[in-house]
Amino acid sequence: MSAVLLSVFAVHLVAAISPGPAVLMTMRVAMTGGMARGAGFAFGVALGAVAWASAAVLGLATLFELAPRLLIALKIAGAAYLIRLAWKMWRGADAPLSVGAAASAATLPRLTARQLVRLTLRGLTTQLANPKPAIFFGAVFVTLVPAGAGPGLFAAILAVVFINEVTWNLIVARIFSLESARLGYTRLKSRIDRVLGGLLAALGVKIAAF
Questions:
Q1: Closest among 111, 108, 113, 116 to 31, alpha carbons compared
Q2: Strand (E) positions, the chain?
Q3: Cα 173 to chain center, whole Å?
Q4: What 3-state class would DSSP assign to 69?
Q5: Distance (Å, rounded) from C-alpha 74 to C-alpha 134?
Q6: Per-residue pLDDT tens for 126-138?
Q7: In the chain, what are the domain boundaries?
Q8: Integer CA distances (angstroms), 148 to 60, 97, 145, 197, in order
């Protein structure tokens, strides 16, 4: 069991670290809102990864192979969501920063429970907008998890997935919530938002096309 978990940990960590929509959005949330808001978003991203891994356990990856049109529909829906986010980011690139976003980390408005829930849901939705993890996890389970694995092993795998995702995105949030990163964002907001928006749109197109 430990060998399986170690293999899943290593393979999934590489996938989690790879730049994608969730990482880009974690960066921006942390730069505009600070560490606490970035952490709330990161928690949602991790929940989304667990949801896709659970779907793979239930055979969603196999269903995609049997019904490719379902995968195409999910890809288009996910791509549309990401492109919408990219468009909003690009359109608002020249808008002035809100008081909260422009404040220093020490003077950021207090994060309410309602805002935390909304950020977590945004992280979850952003992660679910990319259906490719279902295929990835399906491949992981086929190649690394022995046939006949019990619910205990699958629960442990889901825990590894959650820990990998939340840890990596918390690291990203911490780095980009530093005062130097936030000051840099304040100075270069329009350029950064357009770059991030362009990358997000490109990832959306890639998801739809492949």
A1: 108
A2: none
A3: 12
A4: helix
A5: 11
A6: 999 988 787 788 7
A7: 2-209
A8: 18, 54, 9, 44
